[in-house]
Amino acid sequence: MSPTPKPAPKTARITQDVFAQRLRAHVEHLAGQIGERNVSRPEALRAAADYIEAEWRRQGYQVIPHWYGLSGTQWANLEVTRPGNARPAEILLIGAHYDSVMGSPGANDNASGVAALLELSRLFADIVPALTVRFVAFVNEEPPFFLTRRQGSVVYAKAARARGDAIRLMVSLETMGCYRDERGSQHYPPLFGFFYPNRANFISFVSDFRSRALMYRAAQTFRRNSDFPLEHVATFRFIPGVAWSDHWSFWRQGYRALMVTDTAFYRYPYYHTSQDTPEKLAYPAFTRVTAGLAETFAALALGGLDNERD
């Protein structure tokens, strides 16, 4: 079962209901209390899954675990759904991975993405969308499973395609908590720096060329609903960082997908290190980003994807 439908709120209410303390509490629990969480620390990885499941149950959702076997052990991608009332077969999927790389507590990568995911699902409990909105917490995104058939989102996306799931857009929330105003704090692959700002004070939407129309639509919607700086790009998948999250798994299955990110290692000095800890994140900016995403996804789910078909 999903939460009992309620009238869609005014967008201002969504923004007012996003609180920095909620986001920080999620990050501190995952990256502080639990810490490093991956298959080399199975109890911690399961504790992270248990935390996400408990939060979703508190929000009124029925949690569906999608189990798969890996090295003789079962791991789960966790899913909750907000059914659409007009076109329930069509899906807006929002996901984030809950594991961390070995040797890191993973506050920004990717407790920040999970924190945003949990807050977005909480806000959607008060919305009756036209499309079905599905929230998924993916397991085993980090090496040694990254970009292999054993990556949790690869398993999930393949199964979704086999089921015939009509996923109109998949959004990966990846490494979202670092924002800085110093000149020179933002870096890029070669040539990109000629076209984008050198201050790390923005959130970015990243897609491949096939997904660019929906990425542009999402970017326009974000800008209508938030004054937080946004940059976006549709580019080649082989550029370092462009495919480095769970959206890649959905590209492989022919779905349109984009990544929402602070650009990770292009600005965050603690990326994939033991120093990726909760106090490093810029929570006021992260809160504004999450509020803008809530407005954006609500607008898309309430009809903003109407003209897009595979």
Kindly list the characteristics that best describe this protein.
310 residues; alpha/beta; Aminopeptidase; eight-stranded mixed beta sheet; 35% helix; globular
Distance between the termini: 29 Å
The tally of beta strands, per DSSP, is 8
Q: Supply the CATH superfamily name.
A: Zn peptidases
Biggest sheet, in brief? Answer: 8 strands, mixed
> What's the level 1 CATH class?
Alpha Beta
How many separate structural domains? 1
Count up the helices. 8
**Weakly predicted, low-confidence segments:** 1-12
In helices, the fraction of residues equals 25-40%
From the 3D coordinates, which CATH architecture would you assign?
3-Layer(aba) Sandwich
Radius of gyration, CA atoms, in whole angstroms:
18 Å
Order of helices and strands: HHHEEEHEHEEHEHEH
Annotated CATH topology: Aminopeptidase
Class derived from helix and strand content:
alpha/beta
What is the global morphology? globular
Across the major sheet, the strand order is: 1-2-4-3-5-8-6-7
Output mean pLDDT: 93
